[in-house]
Amino acid sequence: MRRSVAAVLIFAPTLAFAQGNPVDQLIACRAEANPQKRLACLDSAAAEIERTRASGELRVTLKREELKRQTREFGQAEPVRRAKEKRGLARDTPDAPRPIEVKAIQSTIAGATRPAETQLWVILLADGSIWRELDGGRSTDVLKPGAKVEVRKGILGSFILKAEGQATALRVKRMN
């Protein structure tokens, strides 16, 4: 069975415009009919990929790894995410892929507390993320450990936490 691997390739602007995309060069080598020329072409393209990876001009990320990273960072403040994404690489090159975006996560409640002084839920999820309720404690629902939850993006940068079997969704903010 043939398996395809989706990869996100990110190139610095100088690589994309000055030298061409080395992965495209590698793929183009397959069209060469002469076996010796094809081998020379493949060797040259592989050497270029190796050089650009070593210099930091080329980064290859498997799609599943990128989804794991975004799931782990879901809900973090925008400046924190932008700093982590920056990593010294340009994303505005013509060859840059569309970013992968996680719009919701599913987890279970590992712990939840509702301090008397604020009446706002603080929820620890099984993935280690901590979320705090933002809206004045209007919910009368009780959040119990083990309950399945979904946290999804709301409007204007907000997040909505909905616990299975609960009537009310909570507007929340990630604390870690």
- Tell me what portion of residues adopts beta-strand conformation: 25-35%
Tell me the structural class: alpha+beta
Cα separation of the termini = 42 Å
Outline: rod-shaped
> Considering DSSP H and I runs of 4 or more, what fraction of the residues is helical?
25-40%
The ordered string of helix (H) and strand (E) elements is EHHHEHHEEEEEE
The residue-averaged pLDDT reads 77
The domain tally reads 2
In what order do the strands lie side by side in the largest sheet? 3-4-5-8-7-6
What is the multimeric organization of the chains shown? single chain
Radius of gyration, CA atoms, in whole angstroms: 23 Å
Tally of alpha and pi helices: 5
